[in-house]
Amino acid sequence: MLQSKLFPRTQKEAPKDEVSANARLLIRAGFIDKLMAGVYTYLPLGFRVLKKIENIIREEMEKAGGVEILMPSLQPKENWEKTGRWETYDSLFKFVSYYSKTELALGPTHEEIISPLAGKFNLSYKNLPFYLFQIQNKFRDEKRAKSGIMRGREFIMKDLYSFHAGENDLDDYYEKMKACYKNIFDKAGIGEKTYLTFASGGSFSKYSHEFQTITDAGEDIIYLCEKCGVAINSEIFQPATLTSDVNVAGCPECGSKNLVEKKAIEVGNIFKLKTKYSEPFGLKFTDENGEEKDVIMGCYGIGLGRLLGTIAEINHDDKGIIWPESVAPFAVHLLVLGGLTAKCGEIYENLQKRGIEVLYDDREDASPGEKFADADLIGIPYRAVVSEKTLAQGKVEIKNRKTGEIKLVNEKELLKAVTSSDD
Amino acid sequence: MLQSKLFPRTQKEAPKDEVSANARLLIRAGFIDKLMAGVYTYLPLGFRVLKKIENIIREEMEKAGGVEILMPSLQPKENWEKTGRWETYDSLFKFVSYYSKTELALGPTHEEIISPLAGKFNLSYKNLPFYLFQIQNKFRDEKRAKSGIMRGREFIMKDLYSFHAGENDLDDYYEKMKACYKNIFDKAGIGEKTYLTFASGGSFSKYSHEFQTITDAGEDIIYLCEKCGVAINSEIFQPATLTSDVNVAGCPECGSKNLVEKKAIEVGNIFKLKTKYSEPFGLKFTDENGEEKDVIMGCYGIGLGRLLGTIAEINHDDKGIIWPESVAPFAVHLLVLGGLTAKCGEIYENLQKRGIEVLYDDREDASPGEKFADADLIGIPYRAVVSEKTLAQGKVEIKNRKTGEIKLVNEKELLKAVTSSDD
Prior knowledge:
Two copies of one chain form a homodimer. By secondary structure, chain A is α+β, with helices and mostly antiparallel strands.
């Protein structure tokens, strides 16, 4: 893509009300635009990253047997009354249709939709298990929308719902999902800092699990077990106040009491719903003996915008973002200096022909300094510079955004460098 | 995909309140589920068709220079007040955030968002033209939500916005978009019945254009010019009542008065917005002489759900849907009869290995009659049957859903038949 045609250009300053590094950098570099508190537009660069994250998640969900659907955002009051959540769900946007006079909610989650949907089709044990997921917009009337795209009033989520004949089957799938989530966070470049975290299971499960990524920009406190590597949400473990029943006295995995406090951001959660939603909606199946039983459910969420923000938060320096190759908007940022557009255009075409995604800074009115600063800010993994100096040697200067390593290479070596991932 | 694992199964009856053929068939065949009036879930089969339509549209938009973004559904009242549409836009869902007390709208369109967004970045003539599009959920508080997914309260749209330095450039791009839209409707299998239709341009353009597909299930009346093949919306042409200024006395393209009345459904529209939205938001650019001028805009919409419904409406018979190959959920519907699952499983694997999308009816508890009826209802272009009779000849029976033609072929010929499109 030609940078001269890229909307919008980068900005020197971030809005003053944005405090987190990721939001400030994402806005300055032109990945997102803030429409109002907690509501953002994904601009061309941000949209590309979002799609890459979406595809990483989709691939893992499909590997785990997930089949994609798309449920609506508009949801009828009746469904939320059936689960008692119309009154109790804290951040539900509610309103009335002017024409139909019906009361509606904007979906913050979809248990109230998918459970009665599954219940429409006389299920037998032969139909179970099945797994449905969607990647879709969610809405929450947040008390304090903050941290840029980390906690939005409108945000994109992947939510998968699993349907089982028994708890053992749910348990097996739940473990499979843990592995899927680990793969996703590994692929997205935050695996090393992301921990499986024990959290409250509510009144119907002992625990649920979160995936928490360690960062100063996090809103949660977690306790990391130095012995076995799992973590515990402060919701169920607070060393000083072991008063509640759900509190645990040590690591729920290994019993160790060597727990270290860390700030983290929740990037995913998985939950054994069991019959919490199948019961109120009469979601049953017929077992081998012809008996009707409640379907056992699980749900598994990942916020895509939050993941995008987290990736930027833990992969940046003071000059800008450092995208992992797997989610970078482009593989190469090609910079032409000093009007050598003919030769550089040729390199651009050659890279594109080979299927390499290139952002080509062809701007005639930008100085080399501006181009270098923009490249650092936008954070594409490889910067390739074509100047009189490099061309005199028949070469291109290539810089690795992450390591800072600079090399002079010929076109063939350039191709090799940008296609062999070292992430 | 294994049909035994496909959610949900087909249904013998459609809901009584669904009157259009497309909605009845799409629901019975398990492509969509109705949550409430005008609000639907895309089930696995429907989601696959939706994605194919999305990709056809995306490809054409990118060919025309469009760059993809994603704008939010939540929109602030201020933006809609600036254009005067907070009070006048008939079907705007409006509500108040409980926490922030701000008044919000659910976006039925995005001129109120993209115009001020573009205006944030001191544009110069060098930045123009540019074209931004999104494929995103829209909301309209419809007086009468009806015709299944044809007129929803929540629906997916592609909307592209173009930004130009002058009207000539807008005119050129507008013609380009006409060609793009023609390609889209051709590829989606409704090209022959879809007509470029003159419609009202409002107070600021002589005409806008719609793309109208002829069908009894349509809600609009159009007048088709038998001489030149364009059409005119009844909004601007009513033979009996030539009273208004905007009415035209004959075909606006060739002047002919041979106009034939037809019922049609609008599947797309394109509009020269000119400065209607750039003015209220101060969206300007600096021209070659350093002077500030209003940016000239155009907008171009296609409703994906409506297109999907239209495709099903004009491609069906009394047994079910007849999907064009380009948007079919699968290329082949493989049916095994009489427990020959080993051989059939092998064929299934072989087809899949070659990248062919197969729905494999592996159900053990369904009769041949049920399998045949489901195949006709779901409407995948090729049905391939493996039975004792066909296997005795080392063959598979292949049936073309559209032509009804049946052939006995070997595996190699099967592969050839389903990959060489005759659409």
